[in-house]
Every structure is written in C-alpha cells, then in structure tokens.
Design brief:
With 532 residues, the protein is an alpha+beta fold. It has twelve helices and 19 strands. A hairpin with a 6-residue loop joins β3 and β4.
Length: 532
C-alpha cells in the first residue's frame, strides 16, 4: 500500500468511526425493557397544549459553587447556576437548570406517594426566602414544611455542602396519626428534548441515563421516551439526565428495590426518575428518607466520589480502555504545567515517542518508495496499459530493493485507535471547557475563532505530500493536492484542543519523515557510488 492510499485510508477509517458512532446514536435499539410507565400523578400525563409548572414563592440559595432557586410548589429545584463554570457566551455563570423558558426546561423534583402525602404539587413553607453559605460554614440547610394532612407531618430538607456538587435531599416523616402508613418516594428530572443538543457539525447527546450493578450504564434517548414510556425494576443504582460536559443524577440512599421510569409530559417535555418504597411507618413513629442529587460538571474525581458508576457518564465508547488512561495522563501533565494547551502538546510528544520506532519503520518504507518513484514511473511508461506485466515488474522491483509495499500500513493501523480515543477525550472533557491556551485561543473546547490552527494544519499536510512518494496516477495526484484543503475545512469545526494535537503531531511527523528521507536518500546515493 503506497503513501497516498495510506493517508486516504487513515482519513476514511477515522470518518467511518465517527459515522458509525453517529449511526449508533440515531438507530441503536433501546437498551431497556419497555413496559407500562410509572405516573407520579395523573397531572403528569401527556398534555396536548404543552407542559407548564405551577409557581409559588421563590427561595434563593447561594453557596461557593451554586446559585439556586427552590420553588415552594413541590420544593422543586427550579434553577441552578454553576458559579465556577461560565455560560457558553461567557456572559455569566453556566445555567444548568431553569424553568424560565418554555424552550428550555430543566427541573429536579421529588415527592411522596400515599394518602395525603406531599407530591410535587403541594405548596411548602420555609422560614426564609434567602439562604447563603457564610464564611467558615461548611453546610447550608434549607428546610421546607408541608401542610400536615391526616396527622402526617413532612419536612423536606436540602443540605448544600462547601466545595461539592452533591446535594443531600431528605424527607422527615412524622406519623402522628392512629394508623400505620406505607408511603413511596420518587425522584425525577424534567427536561425538554430540544435544548443542549450541540451543533449540526458537532452533535452531542442529551437524554436520560441510569446505572445498576446488574445492567451497568445505559442511556435513554428522548426519541425512545416519545415512543413509549420506559419502566425498569432494579435492586440498586441511580437515574439522571446527561448532557455534554454536565450531569444531574438522583442517587437514593435506600437499599430498597426501585423502579426507573420515563414519562412523556408533552410533545417536547419528558421526565425520567425512580420510585421506591419507604417502608411501613407505625402510628406515632418517624422516619427519614435520604437521597443525594449530583448536579454539576463531569469531572472524573467528583463523579467517582458521588456514586458507583456515575463516572461512566463521561462516555468514550468502545475505546474507553485507551481513552481513560490518556485522560489520566493528560490530567497529571496539567497538574505540572498548569495549562491544558501545553498539556496537550506534552501528551502529543509522549504519544509520538511511544510510537517512534513503529512510525520510523513506516517512514523508512515511504522513503524507499520515494527513491524508486522515478523507476516506477519508467515501468509504467514502458508497459503502458498492460497491468499484468506492470504488476509483475513492480513486484520484482519490490523484491530486489527489499521493500514491503504494505510496510507503511501497520504503523498507521496501530495508531488509529489512539488517535480516535484522544479525539473523544478532548471532545468530552469538561476540564477543557473554556480552558485558555495562549493569545487568541481562550477556549480549547471551542473552534479556533480565527481558524489559524486549521490553516496551519493544512500547511503541514501540504508539506507532508512533498515528503511522500509522488503519485504516478494523475487523478490521485490531484486528489492529494485537494486533500489538505478539504481536511483543513473539516478541522474548522473541531475543538481547538483537538486541532492543536493534530498540528503538533504533524510537525513531529514531518521532522521524523524528513530526517528518515534524508538518511535513505544518502544511503541510495552511496549505493550508486559503489556501483551496486
């Protein structure tokens, strides 16, 4: 396989992997059994005229990581901004949850099921309307009280913690009645099916997800929810909403068996949640029901600490076994250099060093092909359209010169999984979101605003074409001239961090290929000088 075919093969393979991943997201069968869905309330059934949330009084909460709004109706978490992460347009903190717009709905709800117990439709009361985590304070508590019904008193308590994206949500149930009760508790997230979907060139997944020890990590697309409500029985696990860079997940602390469900609320709004039994509460007794809500960025360390399996929301696909070590190495390099762009450059150099000998064998083969290119052209001129004789003559030349025409293929095949794994690492790592490099590049997760890196990338590809054996076929020669331009345009839509990796890799490849070409050419000249 000659150089031009190798380059086309790499591009084709990379594209096929991306297309396959996109096809799977669009057409893969639902990973869950679909049965009758759990309805938390009759009012949660699909609404023809859209889905609207009732509003009561608003309670503002401020911590070192959150600016939140809790509504007294249901004690819902209606708004949640991440103070340490900027909005996409840098206009302020990133707004993860919101009920301010019909086009973007993202709310965390809970409730109790049982005669007279407070669902997310009941209006709670609170002692204050503003809560703030003070200096030296590690925990902030927001207590909401439901109207006592049938002798049962219920408090819903939020506890926010300094330095954490994990919120404790607790129900305190006091059964002051004269009979036992057996309530259930549910936790759900409401989200629309149109926002946070990425761009047409770089689509991203937003949808439901759940994890159990038995079934591991599964995603549930809104398209699946629209076709039929989902219901799954499980012995453990969490359920949540995943989007690019961020996740919200309900993690019940009870060991009771639970049911995961989805519900279509309107044409554009869906809920995904879990319901589980609280157990019997005898007359005169009390019980607390605990859950945790993780809501924040997909940082591996935070995810692993929050719940088993939550780290899988950073989904690298079938190449996770390669991608996770690359991310681990990239993170540790960043701890030393304190700049994600420099960390990418250092990682690129390390990867190049790891494949140095393997790449060198491929480049030597290319260099030999480059040296015999004039003789190959002569054979083509001699035999013309007689392909059989031309092939025989070429194979004889390969044998005489001890050249393996497939020798350049293996090094590239081995490196393709690493290239693709790093692509997913750089595309999916929240650590690179709004991470600056130098100068005009202030966000390695976004495209280069002035397209400098893609243009330089195209320039390095043009240089590589001059270092490779020249194509003997005129059509292939034209394709190789167009390819750097086409590939540069393709990279206009890639994150700057990924383009930076490819650019540095190309520069290192050019240096290595130039050095080997020079060495092989010197050997060829010396060989001619000795009359061999």
């Amino acid at each position: 396989m000659d150089t031009r075919r190798l380059i086309l093969f790499v591009i084709f393979s990379f594209s096929i992997m991306l297309l396959w991943d996109a096809w799977q997201q669009q057409h893969a069968p639902a990973p869950v059994a679909q049965q009758e869905a759990v309805q938390t309330s009759p009012a949660d059934k699909p609404q023809e005229n859209g889905f609207k949330l009732s509003q009561g009084s608003r309670i503002a909460v401020k911590t070192d990581r959150y600016a939140a709004v809790i509504d007294t109706v249901g004690g819902d978490l209606r708004q949640l901004s991440l103070l340490e992460h900027k909005a996409d347009d840098n206009s302020g903190p990133y707004e993860l949850m919101s009920d301010a717009s019909a086009d973007k709905l993202y709310v965390a709800q809970t409730g109790l099921k049982g005669d007279g117990l407070p669902t997310h439709y009941v209006t709670f009361t609170a002692a204050e309307t503003n809560y703030s985590l003070q200096e030296g304070q590690d925990t902030l508590e927001v207590r909401l009280t439901a109207p006592e019904t049938n002798g049962v008193a219920v408090d819903k308590v939020y506890r926010f913690h300094r330095g954490q994206y994990l919120i404790d949500v607790q129900y305190e149930i006091k059964n002051n009645s004269d009979k036992a009760i057996s309530p259930s508790v549910y936790y759900q997230i409401i989200h629309d099916n149109e926002s946070n979907q990425g761009s047409k060139m770089m689509p991203t997944f937003t949808g439901g997800a759940y994890f159990t020890e038995a079934d591991k990590y599964n995603k549930v697309k809104f398209d699946e929810m629209a076709k039929k409500d989902v219901s799954i029985n499980a012995k453990d696990g969490w359920v949540g909403l995943v989007q690019h860079y961020f996740v919200s997940a309900w993690v019940p602390q009870s060991t009771a068996e639970r049911k995961f469900y989805t519900t279509k609320l309107s044409e554009h709004d869906f809920s995904i949640g879990t319901i589980l039994p609280v157990g019997e509460i005898a007359a005169g007794n009390s019980k607390t029901v605990d859950a945790k809500l993780f809501s924040g960025p997909q940082a591996q360390e935070d995810l692993e600490a929050a719940a088993p399996g939550l780290e899988y929301v950073v989904d690298y696909g079938i190449l996770t076994v390669i991608a996770k070590p690359l991310m681990w190495l990239l993170t540790h390099i960043h701890e030393l250099v304190k700049n994600w762009g420099i960390a990418i450059i250092v990682l690129t150099i390390l990867i190049k060093a790891a494949f140095f000998k393997l790449s060198a064998s491929g480049y030597r083969n290319m260099a030999h092909l480059r040296e015999i290119a004039p003789r190959m052209q002569a054979l083509k001129d001699k035999f013309g359209d007689d392909k059989q004789k031309l092939q025989q003559a070429m194979m004889e030349m390969y044998r005489t010169e001890k050249i393996n025409p497939m020798g350049g293929c293996l090094p590239i095949l081995v490196q393709i999984p690493v290239f693709i794994s790093l692509y997913w690492v750089l595309l999916g790592s929240v650590e690179l979101r709004h991470a600056p490099f130098f100068g005009w590049i202030q966000d390695l997760s976004a495209t280069d605003p002035y397209f400098v890196l893609p243009v330089l990338m195209g320039a390095t590809m043009i240089i590589q074409t001059f270092l490779n054996p020249p194509p003997t076929d005129p059509i292939q020669a034209k394709v190789m001239k167009i390819m750097p331009v086409a590939f540069s345009i393709f990279f206009f839509f890639f994150p700057a961090g990924l383009v930076l990796y490819w650019l540095v890799n190309n520069i290192l490849s050019i240096w290595q290929q130039w050095a080997i070409n020079r060495m092989i050419h010197a050997e060829a000249v010396a060989k001619k000088g000795h009359g061999k």
